[in-house]
Design goal:
Largest sheet: 4 strands, mixed
Number of helices: 3
Number of strands: 4
Helix content: 10-25%
Strand content: 15-25%
Radius of gyration: 14 Å
């Protein structure tokens, strides 16, 4: 990345004591960094909010800000992200929430809306 921020974390108490990213989160971050040269990249493992075993890497949110997105439609941004992560989506990543913005749409430190609580499959 070109002097930007990259964070890879789990959603539960993410900023407080983020453990080292798992292999899937690390792969997602590496592939998005290589494909988009982002100014800002966050990879959030949100699996802990779903009915999956502890330590799973199945549900993610990515926040990516890249000059590659200037002048492109939201659907095209999502297609680029999905294409970069095709292997992960085909082999274990069950859900991917994407926030894809151009630098002109992003203010550093901007809050990203949290993902909704899991509504399906959870018997908790």
């Amino acid at each position: 990345m070109h002097g930007g921020l990259m964070r890879v974390m789990s959603s539960a108490a993410a900023a407080a004591a983020a453990p080292a990213p798992g292999p899937v989160a690390a792969s997602i971050a590496q592939k998005l960094a290589a494909a988009l040269a982002p100014l800002h990249l966050e990879v959030l493992n949100e699996s802990d909010g779903h009915n999956v075993p502890r330590g799973s890497e199945t549900h993610f949110k990515v926040v990516v800000v890249s000059a590659a997105f200037e002048g492109t439609k939201l659907i095209d941004r999502h297609r680029v992200v999905n294409s970069a992560l095709a292997d992960e989506l085909a082999s274990g990543v069950h859900a991917l929430s994407i926030v894809a913005k151009a630098p002109s749409q992003w203010t550093e430190g901007a809050a990203v809306s949290p993902s909704p609580n899991c509504m399906g499959g959870s018997k908790r």
